[in-house]
Design a protein that fits this description.
The structure is a single chain. This protein is an alpha/beta fold. The chain has one domain: Alpha-Beta Barrel (TIM Barrel), CATH 3.20.20.70. The chain has 13 helices and ten strands. The strands form two sheets. Strands 1-10-7-6-5-4-3-2 form an eight-stranded parallel sheet. The longest helix is centred in the first third of the chain and has 19 residues. The chain is globular, with a radius of gyration of 20 Å.
């Protein structure tokens, strides 16, 4: 499947920018797949105004791929149907993105599965290649891109990613079937590597940039990058030497594909809309927006358990959804993956400090409908 095969509405949504929550895995008290509550999450995100859903990614728990659980195919196939059913009922055209992991053979199987089950793109994790050279990484990505359009994924090392240099990203951006890149290294320098690479490859109009930087969400969305490029793919010139011949590339991060946006999603949609209005209008950024950005970062620190190097990030997401009634509990597949010491109290603190970040009233208004 090629980018040209995607529905026009889906392609426009991705390129103009949208909110894409990374959906968690709904489990019951026996740590078994809870289809009813998984459906409730799908309905919640779409009714909150999200333009798409990503599944099979870090927030969904990479363990779903382990044979002892055998959940990857059952969960991703049912969620695809859930999205389609709710979208049809509400007249929506959401983007469906599935995670792709593992060595090349596994990644190709997962890409084919996603394509066959109606997903529009694959979010490609490279955590299976911790020491591979850039050429091998690029070859792996190129092969998977022959099956399905790709979102690149710069996953921070703290949760299984690796440092990916500019040289990798410029080669990746030159792959024709790359649709977007989720930038999530939680690092300004590495974020700039990706932006510069997309500009130097001459693909800034074709490849949509999405933030996954949970520590910098709202600031990512209002920043205009101005990259003076020294080479574009079409010009075939050396990168980084000589006079500027590609002009100044102006590019923005247009949306987010985020675990943080899997909670308080109604507010995330409002924040994204505000950010895009500011970006498009060129109006001065108000102080209240900058304050809001730091408040969201503080809240994310509690939910994602920054104090313990993200050990409780997935249980933290589950805990917020549990408090809202969307999930039965904060359980993960791995019994040892749970809230860290003091994390629940930190979540209490951000609830008290920033009630305007939550969407509890919206959830309570629709919860019985979503669970029905």
């Amino acid at each position: 499947m090629k980018i040209a095969d995607l529905p026009e509405k889906v392609l426009v949504t991705i390129r103009e920018g949208t909110v894409i929550p990374a959906i968690p895995l709904a489990l019951n008290s026996r740590r078994q797949y809870d289809e009813r509550r998984q459906r409730a999450l799908v309905r919640y995100y779409l009714d909150a105004g999200a333009g798409g859903i990503a599944i099979g990614v870090h927030t969904t728990q990479f363990e779903i791929r382990e044979p002892k659980y055998g959940l990857f195919e059952p969960v991703l196939s049912t969620v695809s149907r859930m999205i389609d059913q709710h979208a049809k009922e509400k007249g929506l055209s959401p983007v469906k993105i599935g995670g792709i992991c593992g060595p090349t053979e596994q990644a190709l199987r997962e890409a084919e599965f996603l394509r066959n089950h109606g997903y529009h793109a694959g979010l490609l994790s490279l955590s299976a290649f911790p020491d591979a050279p850039v050429e091998d990484l690029w070859d792996h990505c190129r092969k998977v891109a022959e099956v399905i359009p790709l979102f690149g994924f710069y996953l921070q090392p703290s949760v299984g990613g690796r440092i990916l240099p500019y040289e990798f990203w410029v080669r990746f951006a030159e792959i024709e079937n790359v649709l977007g890149i989720k930038i999530a290294p939680f690092n300004r320098y590495q974020t700039l590597d990706v932006v510069r690479a997309v500009c130097d490859a001459g693909r800034e109009r074709e490849i949509a940039l999405y933030t996954g930087n949970d520590d910098h969400i709202l600031l990512d969305l209002i920043t205009e990058y101005r990259i003076r490029r020294y080479r574009t793919r079409a010009q075939g010139e050396d990168r980084g030497t000589g006079e500027s011949s590609g002009g100044v590339c102006k590019v923005r991060i247009v949306g987010g594909l985020l675990g943080q946006w899997s909670v308080w999603t109604k507010r995330a949609v409002e924040h994204h809309r505000w950010a895009r209005e500011l970006a498009i209008s060129g109006a001065p950024v108000p102080q209240e927006y900058l304050t809001l950005a730091e408040e969201l970062t503080d809240a994310n620190g509690a939910i994602f358990d920054v104090a313990h190097r993200f050990a409780g990030c997935i249980p933290g997401i589950h805990e917020v959804l549990r408090r809202q009634g969307l999930l039965e509990g904060n359980w993960c597949l791995n019994p040892e993956e749970c809230l860290s010491s003091g994390q629940a109290e930190e979540i209490d603190r951000v609830y008290r400090s920033y009630p305007h970040l939550t969407d509890d009233e919206f959830v309570q208004e629709h919860l019985s409908e979503w669970l029905g």
